[in-house]
Amino acid sequence: MKVLVVGGGGREHALCWVINGSPLVDKLWCAPGNAGIALETECVAIGAEDVDALVNFSKENRVDLVVIGPEAPLVLGLADLLQEIGIRAFGPSAEAAVLEGSKGFMKDLCARHDIPTAAYARFTEPEPAKAFVSEMDPPIVVKADGLAAGKGVIICETVDQANAAVDDMLTGGAFGDAGAEIVIEEFMGGVEASFFALVDGENALPLASAQDHKRVGDGDTGPNTGGMGAYSPAPVVTEQITQEVMDRIILPTVAGMKAEGKPYQGVLYAGLMLTDEGPKLVEYNVRFGDPECQVLMTRLMSDLVPALVAACDGELKDFDLRWFDEAAMTVVMATQGYPGPYEKGSVIRGLENAAKIAGATIFHAGTGTNDNGEITATGGRVLSVTANANTISEAQERAYKAVDRIDWPEGFCRRDIGWRAF
Ligand code: AMP
Ligand code: GLY
Predict the structure, then answer these.
(1) Which atom of ligand 1 approaches the CA of 187 most closely?
(2) Residues within a 6 A CB radius of ligand 1
(3) Topology of domain 125-180, per CATH?
(4) Which of 38, 49, 145, 152 sits a CA distance of 20 to 30 A from 283?
(5) Which numeric CATH code is attached to 189-313?
(6) Phi, psi of 180 (to 5 degrees)
(7) In the Cβ-directed half-sphere of 406, how many Cα atoms lie within 13 Å?
(8) What is the C-alpha to C-alpha distance for residues 282 and 91, in angstroms, rounded to an integer?
(9) Coil, helix or strand for 239?
(10) Strands 2-7 and 27-32, sheet pairing
């Protein structure tokens, strides 16, 4: 088989890493990839959002399967365009990607299909939004409807703050078009957890559990990021929770999307709140989490490729994936300044030495090479230093040993990834 992975982050490096190991695959490309992916896989200089060029490349090279990593090309309809010309695309259609692309759509779907989530209402005008706010008990959650790079959610401690958030989004253009419509919802207390399932339009297969740390600072403090580290398994996601989430959230979503003419295929990533009343849906993403994908891929014993093909072909029923018992942890190394502004081009040394730590695998995210052939930092999140071991605490020890062998003064990482698992 010929396979193309779309994207260039740590998630896509981990996907390429497992797909390269599949005996079914005789050629793998990654577009655009990064300097680490390029060590093992042919990278193609096409941006992940350049859907027309990706379709042309796939057609010209007779690609059999395109694995789409990030949400942006999905929302732009890359999967639809590929399917139209008979190429398998792992990832939802643009219509189904609206589960992530519109929070209001996601909430309405939950209402129509009795899926547990926070009580809410949708607004495009400030006055009715404020009238709704005045009847709520704080904290009150105000969300931009569209994609806002993970920043479109404001947890307001007072009614005044909520009114200000309403104004910022609806009249102040705080999140551009993404904030032209908003969702206001009740605050849910509880423990947050993530949940991943492969979906083929009708059937869903839960993956092993994984949890990220979204805040930039130790102790889960400071601004939100795409994720500063992750571990798997996640002890809060017990077998009982898995069953409840499948029965009450994932399967009703898959059935609802099918019944409404938007069958969902790809990986469904649910952000959950484990409340006193059971698990409730916070949000959906239509892709693998990054860096959760990195820990999941290092724990996968089965070949991923047949599972991706089965998802594309509607054949996940009775499909099984096997996982190693070993735990995995990944520590993200980012450029100083991230998630704010940062400099590009600093040189990273010591990667080979770090990879020699037992159980360590280093995935690249924002890396490139300079004229001297050295690895340089080209993004905010730059490396995903991953390690596997018998326990999460041993995996943590190994991951930080590998981190400490990396010579990159312009980089930083959190020192406490995994603390919630202990
Ligand atoms: P989202 O982008 O929808 O995942 O929201 C970002 C973060 O805001 C989540 O990870 C939660 O920590 C928090 N959050 C969102 N909605 C709620 C809610 N209704 N109740 C409590 N926390 C929430
Ligand atoms: N790690 C969170 C995300 O991928 O959205």
Answers:
(1) 20
(2) 118, 141, 153, 185, 187-188, 192, 271, 282-283
(3) Dna Ligase; domain 1 (3.30.1490)
(4) 49
(5) 3.30.470.20
(6) -70, -20
(7) 33
(8) 21
(9) helix
(10) parallel
Pocket flag, ligand 2, residue 9 (CB < 6 Å): no
Q: Identify residue 290 by its one-letter amino acid code.
A: D
- On whether the CB atoms of residues 331 and 230 are closer than 8 A, the answer is no
Please tell me the distance between residue 46's alpha carbon and the centre of ligand 2 in angstroms.
Answer: 23
**Domain coordinates of the chain in residue numbers?**
2-95, 125-180, 189-313, 327-421
Per DSSP, the three-state class of 104 is helix
Report the CATH number of the 2-95 domain. Answer: 3.40.50.20
Contacts of 401 (CB under 8 A, 6+ apart): 357, 360, 387
Mutate to test the pocket of ligand 2, among 11, 211, 213, 269 (most ligand atoms within 8 A of CB): 269
Same fold, 2-95 and 189-313: no
Counting every residue written for the chain, the total comes to: 422
In angstroms, what is the span from residue 234 Cα to ligand 2's centroid? 15
CATH annotation of 327-421 = 3.90.600.10
- Kindly provide the b/e burial profile for residues 331-362, where b requires at least 16 CB atoms within 10 angstroms of the residue's own CB: bbbbbeebbeebeeebebeebeebeebebbbb
Q: Where are the alpha helices (DSSP H) in 32-158?
A: 51-60, 71-75, 78-84, 98-101, 103-113, 126-134
Over its length of 422 residues, how does the chain's per-residue pLDDT go in tens digits? 999 999 999 999 999 999 999 999 999 999 999 999 999 999 999 999 999 999 999 999 999 999 999 999 999 999 999 999 999 999 999 999 999 999 999 999 999 999 999 999 999 999 999 999 999 999 999 999 998 877 899 999 999 999 999 999 999 999 999 999 999 999 999 999 999 999 999 999 999 999 999 999 999 999 989 999 999 999 999 999 999 999 999 999 999 999 999 999 999 999 999 999 999 999 999 999 999 999 999 999 999 999 999 999 999 999 999 999 999 999 999 999 999 999 999 999 999 999 999 999 999 999 999 999 999 999 999 999 999 999 999 999 999 999 999 999 999 999 999 999 98
